[in-house]
Design goal:
The strands form 3 sheets. A 5-stranded antiparallel sheet has the order 6-9-8-7-10. The mean pLDDT is 76. The chain has 3 domains: 58 residues; 65 residues, Antifreeze-like/N-acetylneuraminic acid synthase C-terminal domain (Type Iii Antifreeze Protein Isoform Hplc 12), CATH 3.90.1210.10; 78 residues. The termini are far apart. By secondary structure, the chain is α+β, with helices and mostly antiparallel strands. β7 and β8 form a beta hairpin. The protein contains 2 helices and 10 strands.
Length: 206
């Protein structure tokens, strides 16, 4: 092999090496660009998802934790943590009387599974218990409710006639209108009907 041929081969080899280096450098640069674009796209996707979530929250209102019954509860029965679960609901879907603290409350009405606790269907827990053989009924006492406390004796009237003399106030509801009273078992149907029709009236017994 002549010197000239050897020189040309060496030059050609160096040229190929430089071309390979350029291709490799371009490949690495392209990979970096692709990775960079992917990271940027991922970041944009996350930002858009966060924006959509924020808009959803704004459209429905902030979420509020409410208490929901997990089993049926009788009127006058104490509501314990074992019979409740917490549920986060958009504030826009709730009424103003939703109960925010379920500590020490009793059912003012019979509650079914899935009922949300409110100031209308619960009362303050007190020392007064429903006597044996009696039943608890909730009555709208109107303005009289603010004068009643657990243990007060009241009479129940409807259409000008006495339904019960000596009913017992068990608790006053959080809304300061509804009153949970205990009445003997044999008159519970008449009192419940009068309460449902809105004709039941309470009078403080002397």
């Amino acid at each position: 092999m002549t010197i000239d041929r050897l020189t040309r081969l060496t030059t050609l080899a160096r040229q190929h090496a430089r071309d390979a280096s350029v291709v490799l450098a371009r490949s690495v640069t392209l990979q970096r660009i692709v990775v960079g674009v992917g990271v940027a796209a991922l970041g944009l996707s996350v930002c858009l998802a966060a924006l959509r979530l924020e808009r959803t929250i704004d459209s429905h209102g902030r979420f509020v934790t409410v208490f929901v019954t997990t089993s049926a509860i009788d009127a006058g029965e104490e509501i314990t943590s074992e019979s409740l679960r917490r549920l986060d609901i958009p504030a826009a879907y709730l009424t103003a009387n939703v109960l925010r603290d379920a500590t020490g409350v009793v059912a003012a009405h019979p509650l079914q599974t899935g009922d949300v606790l409110t100031t209308s269907n619960t009362t303050h827990s007190g020392a007064t218990a429903i006597p044996d053989g009696w039943r608890g009924i909730t009555i709208d006492a109107g303005g009289l409710a603010e004068r009643l406390v657990a243990g007060t004796t009241v009479d129940v009237m409807a259409n000008g006639a006495f339904l019960v003399e000596g009913a017992l106030v068990i608790a006053v509801a959080h809304d300061d209108r509804s009153v949970l009273i205990a009445v003997p078992h044999d008159v519970v149907v008449e009192v419940a009907d009068a309460a449902t029709l809105g004709v039941a009236v309470l009078a403080i017994a002397g």
